[in-house]
């Protein structure tokens, strides 16, 4: 049994050749932008090995096949496909959110304009389906179907995310639903797709999907905490990035909905417009913390992780893969906070 | 045997309930924007029946099953899927091209901003795969695979289209390749997908795909002629729309590549910047015409149609459906020029 960082690193090494082969099918310009986005080349085209992201989703996909008693290779096209869908969403979200940096580098839209990010994202989404369906496996169709349905939920989550920024009031339930769409859905599909490709029984697929859903929401809770209080050197994003766009992320939503003078003061700030200064952002981050937003988000993440563990413990899974999935989930939630 | 307009109208009526049912799966906001784009509702949400487009691709898909000797119903999910992919590309292309009107109405990005067009387009692309794979048919996987590969070519065509606007020199071959990607690929998939869903022999699928490819390039040649010389009242686009963005469309490419003083004058204009006036656009349209761009494009479209006919005549197809496909192809090419 390997530790979570070793598992992530192994999954990155396992999928990269297949991911590169898939990206190689794209036209010259789209391939260039995708390869830059994945950290394989510089903007000018020189080979490099920049941060490609943690590869949590491919790791879940590979473990998912093992959990169902199949060799991890069965899940390889699924692992590549979920990574492609994840990066499709990053490319489009960075553009829509106006984020100029990701993983300490300029974003694709910032370098090549909106059309570059739109088309490269589109291409990765289509490629994900192609990679799955090219296998010719009889289980490729249900896996591709799962991925298509998941993409719909992913989009719904991003739609809510953008809409909530424009609204004065958003309930905690709405925020959780948004996180379930934006993050839970693809984590869920990742944790299930290997079992689907392995032709596992419905109960096994469902337990893995439920685990992924809960880990996904827990991941988002922690990500939202990092989006407000995270160290830019670690997150690769500007400090207080989520506050700059007045995003009603999960800790904010909790703080706003608990009532009282701190909530009122916060609500008043979220109703203002204009570019906030560093001093102001520090003050607002402090308000959210004093209103319990940070503590609640971390406790809720822990509660979700317990539900995720229950889902796995209740299903007939390979014992080693189950422990690796649990360790990976904990690693995701416990990272740098 | 029905005439082409009747065939298009029949295909629109046949697919609309299934298309609406598919769009109904989307989240509230995305569904609203998609329904507006399809001409079913006004921007405010009131039911209407605005122009939904000609539905050429669904008509090809339905005829494709019949050509392979199957009932057209077999192709219904394919017809819906190609219409969804087509509209995904329209939503994204309108944003990237800065087109403010389509079918005499404001475009989605113009009404709801870039994020609306990006997310609604993404949703339609994912939905296309979902509609196919939800059928559970054993032929759904090859049909979905065809659609995913086609989307890659579609994107390649749009990438070329945007890139060519920035380049001083583009060959006619490059322009044709761009049209084959941007228009030929999805027309080809539309003309083949019904046969794929019907489980037709490879030779039948290939003949239909070749037919669609040629009709697609012919369609694009005519569309480019309309983009320069078309009547705004008929096309629903501003007059000289393709010249405003200095698009190196097919007639332009021919005119630029034939050499001589007219080509030089044109090349000089295409190297200028800034918003051109109406007078200037009329003069440039005249230059392209005198350089033979219009005549060449229409003759090339006719030549492609002859190749399309050859492809169908050489394959074992249902005779009635073959004649309808040929009539539909001619209708597409002969429209309003």
Task: Write a structural description.
The structure is a homodimer of 337-residue chains. The first copy, chain A, has helices spanning 4-23, 28-37, 56-67, 76-97, 108-133, 140-166, 172-197, 202-229, 232-235, 241-244, 250-257, 260-270, 278-290, 293-313, 319-334; strands spanning 101-102, 105-106. The first copy, chain A, is mostly helical and 337 residues long. Chain A contains 15 helices and 2 strands. In chain A, strand 1 (101-102) and strand 2 (105-106) form a beta hairpin. In chain A, strands 1-2 form a two-stranded antiparallel sheet. Chain A has one domain (4-334): Farnesyl Diphosphate Synthase, CATH 1.10.600.10. The A-B interface holds A 25-27, 29-30, 88, 92, 95-96, 114-115, 118-119, 121-123, 125-127, 129-130, 133-134, 140-142, 144-145, 147-149, 151-152, 155-156, 158-160, 162-163 and B 25-27, 29-30, 88, 92, 95-96, 114-115, 118-119, 121-123, 125-127, 129-130, 133-134, 140-142, 144-145, 147-149, 151-152, 155-156, 158-160, 162-163.
């Amino acid at each position: 049994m390997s530790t979570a960082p070793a598992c992530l690193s192994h999954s990155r090494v396992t999928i990269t050749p297949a991911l590169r082969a898939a990206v190689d099918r794209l036209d010259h310009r789209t391939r260039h932008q995708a390869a830059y986005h994945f950290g394989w080349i510089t903007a000018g085209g020189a080979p490099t090995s920049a941060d490609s992201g943690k590869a949590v989703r491919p790791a879940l996909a590979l473990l998912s096949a093992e959990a169902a008693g199949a060799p991890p290779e069965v899940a390889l096209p699924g692992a590549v496909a979920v990574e492609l869908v994840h990066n499709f969403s990053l490319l489009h979200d960075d553009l829509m959110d106006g984020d100029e940096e990701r993983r300490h580098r300029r974003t694709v839209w910032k370098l090549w304009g909106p059309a570059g990010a739109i088309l490269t994202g589109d291409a990765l989404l289509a490629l994900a389906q192609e990679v799955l369906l090219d296998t010719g496996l009889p289980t490729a169709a249900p896996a591709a179907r799962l991925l298509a349905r998941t993409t719909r939920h992913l989009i719904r989550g991003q739609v809510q995310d953008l809409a909530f920024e424009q609204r004065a009031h958003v309930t905690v339930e709405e925020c959780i639903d948004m996180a379930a769409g934006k993050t839970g859905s693809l984590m869920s599909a990742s944790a299930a797709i290997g079992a689907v490709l392995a032709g596992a029984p419905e109960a096994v697929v469902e337990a893995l999907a439920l685990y992924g859903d809960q880990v996904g929401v827990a991941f988002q809770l922690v990500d939202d905490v990092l989006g407000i209080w995270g160290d830019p050197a670690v997150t690769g994003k500007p400090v207080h990035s989520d506050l700059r766009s007045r995003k009603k992320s999960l800790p904010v939503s909790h703080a706003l909905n608990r009532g009282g003078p701190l909530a009122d003061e916060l609500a008043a700030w979220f109703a203002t417009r204009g570019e906030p200064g560093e001093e102001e952002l520090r003050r607002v981050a402090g308000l959210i913390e004093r209103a319990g937003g940070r503590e609640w988000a971390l406790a809720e993440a822990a509660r979700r992780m317990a539900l995720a563990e229950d889902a796995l413990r209740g299903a007939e899974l390979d014992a080693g893969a189950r422990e690796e999935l649990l360790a990976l989930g904990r690693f995701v939630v416990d990272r740098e906070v």
